[in-house]
């Protein structure tokens, strides 16, 4: 199994602010991918120019496919169909890969029974606000449980045959597609968990970015009918129905995120940011899920 070759695939759209560091972390891996396939959904910023400049710096074969308006699930599937090799490794723009990430995430394939590998991610934060965002959207290290962990496509590897077995990424979803795909992999293939395969995940840097991310995820959860998240969405609606009848409970509710998350931040601004982010999270979930329904 040591001679298995890898195809790194990724999708991008208007990633000029982050694409350079992301691609450089790929081409500087201690174990190089045998090819890189990038599907660009028609970026209107400098993303494509930056990619083409990075391509000149590496001997790794890189294929840039430009397909305007392609959604993420279709872009991922297109990249995998184009891939020449039997092992597919996946991450997302906006992340930085640990230098040994590819070597680590593909190591379990030395066991021929392994069909897929779930890597892990660490949040990358630059300020107090981003530290406050992290526990709302990420599985913090002290909460990591290998038995229940479901990887996203920011740190994932699988055999092309496993992708075929589960029917690929579910189209036409543009969000939540990776969770549904990962759930299908975990259920239908022999998945190894490799928490030492680390990707550094950049967090939303503004209230607007946080709101839009949660809204889009909630929309995808509803459209993809992803049951674990649908249950959480329903609980949010129930919670606010209770607050409508018993409004005196709402101030106590705003203390809850401080109790849960302050230990990750330990900064006075957390007492402001955490309650505000909780309200924004709930609002985005309600609006996003309604948008997904209608």
How would you characterize this protein structure?
- The model has no long low-confidence stretch (mean pLDDT 95).
- The protein has an eight-stranded mixed β-sheet with strand order 3-2-1-4-7-6-8-5, with helices on both faces.
- Helix 1 links the parallel strand 1 and strand 2.
- It folds into two domains: 197 residues, Alpha-Beta Complex (Spore Coat Polysaccharide Biosynthesis Protein SpsA, Chain A), CATH 3.90.550; 87 residues, no CATH class.
- With 294 residues, it is of the alpha/beta class.
- Helix content is 47%, strand content 17%.
- It is globular.
- The termini are far apart.
- It contains twelve helices and eight strands.
Q: Considering the protein shown, what is the CATH homologous superfamily of the largest domain?
A: Spore Coat Polysaccharide Biosynthesis Protein SpsA, Chain A
The CATH architecture name of the largest domain reads Alpha-Beta Complex
Low-confidence stretches: none
The CATH top-level class label of the largest domain: Alpha Beta
CATH fold assignment of the largest domain: Spore Coat Polysaccharide Biosynthesis Protein SpsA, Chain A
Count, helices: 12
Q: Given the C-alpha coordinates, what overall shape results? A: globular
Spatial order of strands in the largest sheet:
3-2-1-4-7-6-8-5
Determine the N-to-C terminus distance: 48 Å
- Using DSSP, what is the number of strands? 8
Q: What is the helix fraction of residues, given as a range?
A: 40-55%
Radius of gyration: 20 Å
Tally the structural domains.
2
């Amino acid at each position: 199994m040591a001679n298995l070759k890898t195809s790194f695939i990724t999708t991008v759209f208007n990633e000029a602010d982050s694409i350079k560091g992301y691609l450089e972390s790929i081409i500087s891996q201690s174990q190089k991918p045998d090819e890189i396939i990038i599907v660009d959904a028609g970026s209107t910023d400098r993303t494509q120019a930056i990619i083409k400049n990075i391509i000149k710096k590496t001997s790794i074969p890189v294929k840039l496919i430009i397909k305007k308006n392609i959604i993420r699930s279709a872009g991922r599937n297109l990249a995998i169909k184009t891939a020449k090799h039997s092992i597919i490794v996946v991450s997302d723009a906006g992340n930085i890969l640990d230098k040994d990430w590819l070597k680590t995430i593909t190591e379990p394939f030395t066991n021929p029974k392994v069909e897929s590998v779930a890597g892990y991610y660490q949040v990358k934060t630059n300020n107090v606000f981003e530290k406050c965002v992290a526990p709302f959207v990420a599985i913090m290290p002290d909460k990591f449980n290998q038995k229940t962990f479901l990887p996203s496509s920011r740190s994932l590897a699988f055999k092309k045959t496993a992708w075929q077995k589960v029917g690929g990424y579910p189209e036409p979803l543009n969000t939540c597609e990776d969770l549904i795909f990962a759930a299908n992999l975990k259920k239908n293939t022999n998945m190894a968990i490799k928490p030492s395969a680390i990707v550094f995940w950049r967090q939303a840097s503004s209230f607007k970015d946080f709101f839009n991310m949660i809204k889009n995820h909630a929309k995808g959860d509803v459209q993809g009918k992803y049951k674990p998240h649908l249950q959480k969405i329903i609980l949010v609606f129930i919670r606010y129905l209770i607050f409508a009848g018993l409004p005196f409970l709402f101030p106590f509710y705003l203390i809850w995120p401080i109790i849960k998350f302050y230990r990750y931040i330990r900064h006075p601004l957390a007492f402001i940011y955490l309650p505000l982010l909780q309200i924004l999270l709930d609002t985005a979930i309600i609006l996003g899920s309604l948008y997904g329904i209608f």
